[in-house]
């Protein structure tokens, strides 16, 4: 992967969102890279029709020669979300990785468009302070190291929204953005993130205006709702008895869980680049899926297998957060999770109530739970006297250490 400076660029594919930054990037590229052709690429990962409305017209009006809108919704859920779900990855104990997990599918499609149109460069609008610049460029390096990568925020001298708006106004390029925008948001089928505004002060409680995907738990219905999820070898197959595509199932869960305020978190996280940031995330359907999957795991996986899966999840949360999807390490961890998911088959009922998703029922043909063994009543399958020998052997090293310590003190 070549850096952009001092490189001859004839055709560049820009990851385009239709927002202020990428609207300014199109003319900037043409002016600073000897009139290169700019092709816009937009990934539809379920961010919603409102964000995609008129995006091709916006790109062309900003100076792009073409605009490719690629539908990645089903691929995103089936090929990225489901495998990550099997790892149980949760970053720093809370974050369900909504932004992170979308980057590999977007980067892969970005490279595919670039190769299709014969481009010699890729461009993104990530800032020099964020994680996404690393995630995208790490993917580009793995998939298309021969392509030049341009990161305008690391090159130009514009530093504010005012600068970008002035830049577009000077060139009579239309843009719907304004100085009244408070929050920086990133949405996809799995979640929406919110940063900026009052959230930059961790002592400031988020206002109601921050949240857009979920009902305030305080205003949620006073009667709980229930959703039944069916899994086959770790893959969601039915929701409330309905066979839906991966994307449709997630949309269904988003609607149901969002209505009960499920999936809100407010965290301060450690960015890959070394600084801390505060963000609010809404992941309603994902929160239900993760609770259901782990609820089923608890019924099926033995102690050591679950312990290992938890270690995979912890490590993989950093792998995906840090943008290392297309690496041998990620491949190995995903394979481990896939192996452990082979017996994750069964049904789970999740209660939705006042911001909480709670597993209330679970069943599986592969369950290791036995009422005959677990009961406190009389049984003929477990002789409680056997526990004495087990405990003596289990604590043998502690006993030996204590006896050794006593012997030394008596000398």
TrEMBL record:
Pathway: Amino-acid biosynthesis; L-arginine biosynthesis; L-arginine from L-ornithine and carbamoyl phosphate: step 2/3
Homology family: Belongs to the argininosuccinate synthase family. Type 1 subfamily.
Record domain Arginosuccinate synthase-like N-terminal: where: 11-174
The protein, known as: Argininosuccinate synthase
Pfam family, one: Arginosuc_synth
Subunit structure: Homotetramer.
EC numbers, comma separated: 6.3.4.5
Limits of the Arginosuccinate synthase C-terminal domain: 183-400
Family annotation (PROSITE patterns): ARGININOSUCCIN_SYN_1 (PS00564), ARGININOSUCCIN_SYN_2 (PS00565)
Reactions it catalyzes: L-citrulline + L-aspartate + ATP = 2-(N(omega)-L-arginino)succinate + AMP + diphosphate + H(+)
Residues at which L-citrulline binds: 95, 100, 131, 135, 184, 193, 269, 281
Superkingdom as given in the UniProt entry: Bacteria
UniProt binding sites for ATP: 15-23, 43, 125
Residues reported to bind L-aspartate: 127, 131-132
Top-level class of the enzyme under EC nomenclature: ligase
InterPro entries, alphabetized: Arginosuc_syn_C, Arginosuc_syn_N, Arginosuc_synth, Arginosuc_synth_CS, Arginosuc_synth_type_1_subfam, AS_cat/multimer_dom_body, Rossmann-like_a/b/a_fold
Keywords from the UniProt entry: Amino-acid biosynthesis, Arginine biosynthesis, ATP-binding, Cytoplasm, Ligase, Nucleotide-binding
